[in-house]
């Protein structure tokens, strides 16, 4: 643990940010799983689930949680997987 007061604060901030980032990434994974489970179902529900995943990924990029290429890769892979399941 750090000895300087400002360094101690930074450790606490880093911990808080890490917890936030992990929670946000978890919500993205959950949304992806839900979208994959709806691939064979109703098209309206699938479109809504895909939209939610895209929204979460873009929001994560804006907050600095994900790199823009990582978000693009996640969206691309999800779309390819859904198209493969529907074929």
CATH homologous superfamily heading = Ribosomal protein S20
Q: What oligomeric assembly is this protein in? A: single chain
**Distance between the first and last residues' Cα:** 55 Å
| Radius of gyration over all CA atoms, rounded | 17 Å
Q: Classify the beta-strand content into a percent band.
A: under 5%
For the secondary structure, the number of strands is 0
Shape: elongated
The whole-number mean of residue pLDDT values reads: 94
Helix-strand sequence: HHH
Written description of the protein model:
With 87 residues, the protein is an all-alpha fold. It has one domain (5-86): Methane Monooxygenase Hydroxylase, Chain G, domain 1 (Up-down Bundle). The protein is 84% helix and 0% strand. It has 3 helices and no strands. It has helices at residues 5-37, 43-63, 68-86. 14% of the residues are buried.
């Amino acid at each position: 643990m750090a000895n300087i007061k400002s360094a101690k604060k930074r450790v606490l901030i880093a911990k808080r940010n890490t917890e936030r980032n992990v929670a946000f990434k978890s919500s993205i994974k959950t949304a992806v799983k839900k979208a994959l489970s709806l691939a064979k179902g109703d098209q309206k529900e699938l479109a809504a689930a895909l939209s939610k995943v895209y929204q979460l990924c873009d929001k994560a990029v804006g907050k600095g949680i994900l790199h823009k290429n990582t978000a693009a890769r996640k969206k691309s892979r999800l779309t390819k997987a859904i198209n493969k399941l529907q074929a």
